[in-house]
Amino acid sequence: MTIGRSFYSALVLSTALLMVLGGCGGAGGAGSGKIEIKVATFGEFGYEPLFEEYEAQHPNIDLAPQVSDFEAHHKGLATHLAGGSGVADVVAIEEQYMPQFLQSKDKFVNLADSGAKELQGQWAPWKWEQGVSKDGSFVLGLGTDMGGLALCYRRDLFGKAGLPTDRDEVAKLWPTWEEFARAADRFSAAAPDAKFADSAGSIYTAILNQSEENFFSKADDSFIADRNPNLRRAFEIAGKIGAKGQTAKVTTYTQAWNVAVKQGSFAVMNCPAWMLEQIKEAGGNANTGVWDVTTVPGNSGNQGGSYLTVPKQSSHQKEAYDVVTWLTAPEQQKKIFLQSGILPSAPAAYQAPEVVSKTDPYFNNAPVGKIYAAAADSLQPHYRGPKDSVVRPKFGLALGRVENGKQTLDEAWNEAVQQAREAVK
């Protein structure tokens, strides 16, 4: 999954209407005699060729894709679940929303009842854990991809700043995020006309995604943002880089970010596996070989990744479950990575020789399969909490105020904490 390769903004309204109609039908095209299974996703999942393959293997099934904007997709799902109609047969949910929808698990099919627990060994343990209830009895969704972390950097800008350009040597610059901040200082001193990173928010997100807990306690879902040292550390490291004017102040997936990538306005960005295609689209052919990929400080982390679920509204729950198990099987995950670079969450897929040996010419032939597979092997579960999607943006906006000189680091932190407390009351 990618959250932001494309937002498909023009399709948001039509997709919402399709989802409303999704619960009203069940047969395939008029007179076809086929069962139509609507599959609602967001961004890019790489499913198009797989849909054709599945339909060829199952001539009684028509798969109908519904693709929408990331936020509209999840908000629409919540609305249609509450309304009792309009949800597709198979619905993707991004990891940050899983705790929220687990609270509404009565609206979904428990995939454990269809034998999903027998498939548990297909996924990395932490990936399986995020898709089930705390007691493990309810399987809400089966994992698609994950967003193993790395950093992408521009070799030309590093060279101009007198920093190493070889990916292994670059990795040695930042064994920790504190060292990463010092590398930002070195870069800015030597290349004052360029920015080191895209945004403080991007750095902050990467650091957060290496922590077991951020805003909420895994034990009881209590709000811990105001006393979690990992959260404050991430905020301070990223905020100080932003306050020093070392970021381009561009938000990922916006037009300003696309332009900055194409023009080489910054040298480093947080780079989950699915980000590679976004960089290619924004950078264009002219930037082939300019970017490279290296290890993230701390060596691993996860940003993004999704699950496929079956809402109870589906009139074809068995057929929908069969689609889910097929699409999320290791063999299909491997195909998607080789076609689209979307990182599998199944060890049998991301450890496969074809995956590990994959290089990417656009990124100076970086061994992307090896880099992301290594990160995947050392990942730890990252707990979010049911109101993560409500609280998390408060801190991202606060960092933006620091970047733009509107608040000091302490002022922004205190305001974000207060806003977060209000949001979880």
From TrEMBL:
Entry protein name: Extracellular solute-binding protein
Superkingdom to which the source organism belongs: Bacteria
Taxonomic placement: Bacteria, Bacillati, Actinomycetota, Actinomycetes, Pseudonocardiales
SUPFAM superfamilies: Periplasmic binding protein-like II
Biological source species: Saccharopolyspora elongata
Transmembrane segments: none
A Pfam family it matches: SBP_bac_8
InterPro entries with a match to the protein in the record: Bact_solute-bd_prot1 (IPR050490), SBP (IPR006059)
